[in-house]
Amino acid sequence: MKDLLISILETIDEGIHAVDQRGITIYYNSKAALLDGLHPQDVIGKHILDVFPSLDRTSSTLLKVLKSRKPIYNQQQKYTNFKGKEVVTVNTTLPIFGQKGFLGAVEISKDITQVKQLSDKIHFLQQTLYRNSGKGENDKYKLYQFGDIIGNSNKILELIRKAQRISQSNSTVLVYGETGVGKELLVQAIHSSSHRQNGPFIAQNCGALPESLLESILFGTVKGSFTGAENKPGLFELAAGGTLFLDEINSLPLSLQGKILRVIEEKKIRRIGDTKEIFLDVRIMAAMNTDPLEEVEKGLLRKDLYYRLNVVTLYIPPLRDRIEDIEPLVLHFIDKFNKEFNNKITGVTREVLKVLQNYSWPGNVRELGNVIEAIFNFKDSGKIDIEDLPGHIVQQGNGDRNLSLREKLFQYEKELIIGAYLGNDKNITKTAEYLGIPRQTLQYKLKQFKLK
């Protein structure tokens, strides 16, 4: 049993470092050794401070837990390992208790170096692009305007009318709708039409990064707040005088949702590790792809945060509920891709338009754009005809009249999965989460549909 447990600990992707009550290492797996640039035999049987001379009893989380016998969760750490490589980890350190009482402590370290590097690049780009927005320096990075929202339906025209009206206020805005309907497009248009249009517009997908990293990105850090921390403003500060857009806000842990609630209510923040408060002039807009009340009922969205965000709520209906918008959207995408591909496609046949209007578009406008773009890769000119369309769209768009129940169920599953896949920009992880199925199941289905 012991050998099995050790084998399991050696295969997982987290570093495991366990010490006894004296601080002597009793277990140190291969991943931990890889992170630190050491070999397990260099560490096992030795005191932490003998192996890691840069640490002391106040900076070592393992020694802190040995002293307090209380856990430390999600502590971010940045350090240079013994091979000179810069490493960023998120550590959870726990006391170990057994039948004989307190036995020692164990630290679990998750390597987020690549994620941190990517987030730093995003942070830098946001700071570079938006610090001077409105000053004529970033014209090629122009944000969307209300004129960029395509559609003639009463639903979309009423949505634009409401959005234009609330663009003149500072109220928080909550936008929701299925994936691919254009939530960020609408939020950018509101910002571009507001008195904040010359201030920065900063967007952050809350589901894209781990909690500990996202907190430092949002709130900023001061030097010494954790090992390797630097003085760096967060996105709340970078968005000063403008708009901060928090997408997928319901994916945040409830504890971090509470901190964002306080920022909205008090209009001030503290960087991580700082005691000084910074007052903010930022408009907060948020979005999610599910009904916010359902998220509240599921316990995924704090009720108090929902009520604070729900000053203005805008719902973007799915494309299947506004089929009169399909034709202008198709013409828009044809014009767009003619310019990008240097093609000469003139439109679609009536039969194609009817099929497109009968299809359910689970990936919404994004899926429609992806379908049109795919056609441009194989067609140079003329009108888009029925044979140019993907088979699953033609089948469903024609009503599937002659299919058996099993065939219809298979076709519906295929259409739903492919639509979600295209609507999530062919991202396996996001599509699997959206559909609520394992990644392996999605990959099998895509292979079955000859998309992978």
Automatic annotation (TrEMBL):
Coiled coil: none
Residue ranges constituting the Sigma-54 factor interaction domain according to the UniProt record: 149-377
Keywords: ATP-binding, DNA-binding, Nucleotide-binding, Transcription, Transcription regulation
Gene3D superfamilies linked: 1.10.8.60, Homeodomain-like, P-loop containing nucleotide triphosphate hydrolases, PAS domain
Keyword Transcription regulation listed: yes
Domain PAS: 1-52
InterPro entries: AAA+_ATPase, AAA_lid_NorR, Homeodomain-like_sf, HTH_Fis, P-loop_NTPase, PAS, PAS-like_dom_sf, PAS_4
UniProt-recorded Gene Ontology molecular function terms: ATP binding; sequence-specific DNA binding
Pfam families according to UniProt: AAA_lid_14, HTH_8, PAS_4, Sigma54_activat
Residues passing through the membrane, by range: none
Gene Ontology terms describing biological process: regulation of DNA-templated transcription
NCBIfam families assigned: sensory_box
Protein known as: Arginine utilization regulatory protein
Organism: Anaerobranca californiensis DSM 14826
